Target: Chemotaxis protein CheW
Amino acid sequence: MNTVTDAGRYLTFTLNGEAYALDIFHVTEILEYRTLTVVPMMPEFIRGVINLRGRAVPVIDLAIRFGRGRTEIGRRTSIIIVHVDDPALAEMAELDPDDKGVTGGQDIGVLVDSASKVVTLSAGDLEPAPSFGAGIRADYISAMARRDDDFLILLDISHVLSISDMVRLSEMAQQHPAEES
Model:
């Protein structure tokens, strides 16, 4: 079972009408949606890559990652750039010695309906993640925050954007391509 995260500052955003938040510590910047370069043979939730100051940064569609369809591109669609550390990156770096700096983590773009604002949450605002009923995997949720008459879902970005999980899914997609209907 997940533990409640520490109080702190969180970037709120919407996805399919639901309110979510990420610890601001992981967020490096917020971009307006821009055209993505599609990369063949990637899992469906990797919508493409963007050129961010000369680096190719993958963009993940959280709606697809959560099994809730594709994010429709609209006027307020945003890409939140987050920095993810993953122990599996060190292993990947050993496999590709030409890939410089990968052991320091990876920047990943997260496609959302809209980025909202930064909020400060106290420990009293937070409750443990539910073991069921949120509509996404329990290990993706670090806590729930009370907000007015509703809840804000605080995501555990290290699980949601686990690079080792995504690499595994990518390898599976390449081995078993989806059949055309």
Summary: The domain at 8-171 is CATH 2.40.50.180 (OB fold (Dihydrolipoamide Acetyltransferase, E2P)). The chain is about 15% helix and 40% strand.
